[in-house]
Each structure stands twice: as structure tokens, then as C-alpha cells.
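Hi everyone,

Forwarding the result from last night's run.
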Amino acid sequence: MAVPDKETPQMTRDQKMSLIAAIACISSVGIGLGLTLPLLAIMLDREGVSSTLIGLNTAMPSVASLLLTPFIATLLRRIPTGTFLLGCLALSAACMPLYFVFPNVWAWFPIRFVNGLALAGLFITSEFWVNQMAGDKNRGFILGLYGTVLSLGFATGPLILLAVGSEGLTPFLIVSGLTLSAAIPVTLARHLAPRVEEKASRGLLAFLIVAPAATFAGLIYGATETNIFNLLPVYSLRVGLSESIATLVLTIFAAGNVIFQIPLGLAADRFDKRTILFVCAGVGFIGTALLPVISQYVWLFVSVLFVFGGVVVGMYTVGLALLGSRFKGADLATANSAFVFMYSIGALVGPPVAGAAMDIWDPHGLAIAMAVICGSYLLLVGWRWSETQPRSGSDRKDGPAP
């Protein structure tokens, strides 16, 4: 394990400008999804659309992300990074009013798919920008700050919806305006955006083999996050908690997401990143395995969710930092795409698996399914971590094989 640094290095002016631009992009993703996911579900339910069709419609952004991610590095070789981000911002902003103009579930399938392409482009490319510009000594801190803003964006979306209501064009115009405002810092910092001029040394899927601890962190976090936001309120009601507590648990989980990311990022700057991932997976396994035992004790239940929500998000921050510590340029762009690709798979596969587990053992199948998911990753990262321990070299913190 590495000796801790005395302090986190200060960011340069260029790093700050780049971070502000990337944060503006990811804020538009967080706020856009945080508002439209509940708003569109409410509107569809109001029209009497079936839950199955609502679920299929909601999955379109994840489908778009899965289809786009293999081509991000190729697109960035042909389109400057700043220009690509500005195009994604414009496309996402243009999609928002269309939900109001065409209030029909079948029209929303292509709209959500196109909007999903734009959001995926913003998500992957802004991550690549931040990871590329961060230094090895402060990458975890910068990615932790970046991830915190993403979590705050998700929390802000529902607050906007609460303030303006679900009727009319107003909520869509607000998201469009905020999305377009992100173009200002991107334009100012576009000369600092990384360029991808060479081909990656390997294809996207190869990074799953070369860097499994880092890329599979995306899958585990994607599955865990979507399981929590989709099924935890249902789980809470079925174990006998009140409706108000069932609503509150998501806020508590999200609060942990926000508070823990920067401390975990700082820890990743000072210690072996695989060790931090191992700890995060361990807390995820223990936290979910305990839910059937503690679900009747409200304060213990919400306290565990707070810590679980905070620590498990470290798999996102530290997984990205681990990729950035090894890869640069086109390889990093492709590795970041592999990370988001795995996140999208987790987001698509996680809820059906957990839902089926709940049908088999109602309601604790959710907790068991998530414990198995976290436990599987715990074994993987433990194996990769143990492989590197006998090795020596100048960078003992990250080693040669994430």
C-alpha cells in the first residue's frame, strides 16, 4: 500500500476550466435524467399506459448508450471533442420540447432514443476529458468532485419538477435552457479538450479482459444503482415500512452518493485503487446481505442505506480513476466507453434479475440478488488485487493490470 501524500495538489487554471466545462456537461445529463425519468413516467401513467410499456420506453436511453459507446473513440478521431460535446448539448436541448409537442408513447420511443444518444455522448466524452486532464496525484479527487456534481444533478431534477409541476411545457423548457447554458463553458474551454488522433491499441471489448476490475466496476454500480432507484421503495413497503419512509429511503441513498464521493476519491489518490474497490465491494456485499435482518429497524435500516449508498458509489469514481491511471489518449477514450458500456448493461440487466429474485423470495430476493452481484465483484477485484501484490515497480499504487 502506498504512503499517503501530504496534500492533494492544486489544480492549474487549465484544469479548472476543463473541469468546469465537463461538469457543465454532466450536470445537464444528471438534471435531464433526474427530471425526465419521473416526469415522463407520471405523464404516461396519467394516460393509462401499462407499466410494461412505460418500462420499455424508459429503457431507450440505455439502449442508445449501448449502441453508441463502441463508436465514441472513432467519432472523436473525426470530430474535435469540444465540437462533439456542443453538438450533443444542442441535440439534447432540441429533444426536450418534443416530448410536449408529441404526447404519445410511440412517438417518445424515437425521441428518447435520440436524446439517449446525445446524453451518452455527453456522459462518455466529459468523463474522458476529465480523466485525461487529471494528474495522477489528484485524479481521484477530481473524479470524486465530478461524480458528486452528477449525483447533485440527479437530485436537482426532481426538485425542479416539484417546484414547477408536471403539467405543460415549462419543465421541458427549463431542462432545455439549462442544457444550452452548458455550452458556454464548453465553448470557452474547447481549445483545452483532448484530441484523439490515433487509433486505440485494442477494441472496446478487449478492455473488459485487460482491465476487468475497473470496467466491471461500471457494471456492478449500474446494476446496483438502478435496482435501488427502481425497487427499493417497493421493498421498503413490502417489509412493512410506511409510504413516507419508503419515499425517504431514496433521498438517504442519494445523500450518501453525494457525501462519500470526494473522500473516496481522495483515498484513491493515496492508496492502492484496487484496495479501495475491494472495500467498496465488501461494504456493498455486507450492506445488502444485512437488509433482510435489519429492515424492521427503521433507523438502522436508513443508516445502513446511507453508508451503503455512499461507499458503493466509490466503484464508479475509483473505477474511472483506475482506468485513467493506466490509459491515455485513444486508449482512454475507448476504456471509458467500455466502462459506460458495462454500466449500461448493468442498468438494463440488474432490475429484471432483481425483480425475478423478488418474485421467488418476496421481498428479500432484492437484497439477496444485490448481495450476489456485489459478492461476485468482490471475488473478481480480490483476485486482481492479489495478483499484483508480489510485483514491484515505481507505481505500486496502481500496478500494471487493473
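The longest helix spans residues 13-46.

Cheers,
N.
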